[in-house]
Write the structure tokens for this entry.
Amino acid sequence: MIKRDKEIISKEEIVCKTRLQMGRGLMFRSDRKNLIMYLTKERKVSLHMFFVFYPIDVLLLDQNKKVIEIKENFKPFSFWNSKNKGSYIIELGKEKSKRIIKVGDQLKF
């Protein structure tokens, strides 16, 4: 569950902690899902949307789970490189989860 204060952003997510899980991400998933990636160390990220057939929002969080960067409406078959280093990536594919988080928000999961 992803929360901001007492507001629930997502009730169910795919959790990715291994390279294989992170490599697959949302690819080849027919239904829209939300996903949390735990990075092994703080770093800039580079993502692609190959074989993800719907747009998502991407949140980059620091080690304290504070949102430091947002990529809204990340479209299928495109690329994105973060400007900042982060420790967590959240991919929001479910429509009701999108565009309600702002840079600076503190999340819990």
